């Protein structure tokens, strides 16, 4: 399938997904309005019954749409991974004349593949689809790993493993000052660590507080302490 046909198919699929979402909300609203009007006491005035039906319609629309979203959300993520990224693909190189030239071509292709895969897999921690999905900011390496430059001395590292239960992605914050790598599982966590560094605090101490962690610990930096601080 050519890139144009693939893009067209993805556009049609995305339109159908959004159409299903809208239709489910309309069905839920219509069903809620009908049930609300039928369940409203007959002794109520018509205006009161209509108002009650409207309230039930809103609840019904949200309820049905929420149920539909349980199925549609994974489909949206799947379409993002299959959608062609906004980049210009250059033509394949001419056939190699020597083994060394072939090795150089494959090495370059491996690095590009690693960068593209890292950008495609980034939806697992960045569902916003407008930051880590930029493959031009990823640098791939011949071992299949890739890094995303964030700031001087700070990069996000991507490594994938294929095991018994499929592909597992690992995103890690690496620094050039000897601090321990930090596993990243979401954008809020990444922001927290960058904000801590901007405040001059070690990454090792930038651990967001959780319900099962002692909030009085002196080795933690709470989000409230970093309010208004932006990474540079």
Offer a few descriptive terms:
232 residues, alpha+beta, 5-stranded antiparallel β-sheet, 4 helices, 5 strands, 13% strand, elongated, disordered C terminus
User: What is the average of the pLDDT values?
Assistant: 77
Strand count? 5
Shape: elongated
User: Going across the major beta sheet, what is the strand order?
Assistant: 1-2-3-4-5
User: What is the tally of helical segments?
Assistant: 4
What does this protein structure show overall?
It is a single chain. The chain is of the alpha+beta class and 232 residues long. Helices cover 47% and strands 13% of the residues. It has helices at residues 3-39, 46-82, 99-121, 187-198, and strands at 138-140, 146-151, 154-163, 166-175, 182-183. It has a five-stranded antiparallel sheet with strand order 1-2-3-4-5. The longest helix is centred in the N-terminal third of the chain and has 37 residues, at 3-39. The relative contact order is 0.07. Mean pLDDT is 77; it is low at 205-232.
